[in-house]
From TrEMBL:
Protein's gene: Mroh1_0
GO cellular component terms attached to this protein's record: cytoplasm
Residue intervals of the Maestro/Maestro-like HEAT-repeats domain: 56-302
Organism: Psilopogon haemacephalus (coppersmith barbet)
InterPro entries hit by this protein: ARM-like, ARM-type_fold, HEAT_Maestro, Maestro_heat-like_prot
Protein name: MROH1 protein
One Pfam family per UniProt: HEAT_MROH2B_C
Record Gene3D superfamilies: Leucine-rich Repeat Variant
Amino acid sequence: AMARHAGPRLPLVVKNLLPSLSSIFDSQRVTTTAFFAQLLSSNVVNDLILLETMMDSMTGRQKDTCTLVRMLALRGLGNIASGAPEKVRKHGAKLLASMVNGMDDKDDPHNLVALEAMSSLSKLLDHLEQKDIQSMLLHIAIRIRPFFDSEQPDLRRSSIVLFGNLTKFSEGHGEVFLEQILNGLVTLLLHLQDPRPEVVKACKFALRMCGPSMGCEGLCEMFLNHLREDRSLHYGEFMNNVCKHLMQSYPEMLNRLISTNLFYFKSSWVDIRAAAPMFIGFLVLHVDEDHCQQVDLDPLISGE
């Protein structure tokens, strides 16, 4: 409301609030950071030449002792994507470094800072320079991978959406980024059976985005046609066809795909526990005789 109706008064308000960012009281730092973070989503900060000041203030809060302040600071930096999208490119390297630092936050037991970093980075990506992203691409992809299986659905959803968005920048990193896609493929396919609809939606998006980078036209077409948001999925039939394409294009990956699936035999989600042995069954069904010899039957039979 202040951005809309009290623009000319904001520079003075911001000036008077700035000292509170260094207050000894957490509540004052939280309130000021929250106000600045929300203000950054409005173009008024650009019009009033406040953007740089407020952006530096948010960056300066990244080492704050309060988790909530660190989280809100990242939210503010991410909000620049809607408040001043044309300025994101100019400050791209700095913003990207802030998001990566947020994902690596060590003093964040509930991963609130990491969650905000992933959500904010997804907002910023379309406005960042290709070269800025490419230098950090692998680090980010590897860092977010463990969140795919988080017990917190928001972390699963945000990390998977971010992974899908990163594939837009994989040009020039073809082979190396393909490896990251293959590392996450089993997880993304199994989480199509996730108990949370928002995570299923994220997996559909990520797989559609990954398809063109996989070098298998049949698989890419399947992801585009069967994983549309508005389309219900016959999971068993879909996985049967996916495994057929996988074994035609990547037969040497059989053992790796099987061992990743074995990990999910102990999943806490019953539908994913059920999907993993079915996935293995279809892989073995479609592999040719030469590659069939690769399969180590002992862990399969014991289910471990």
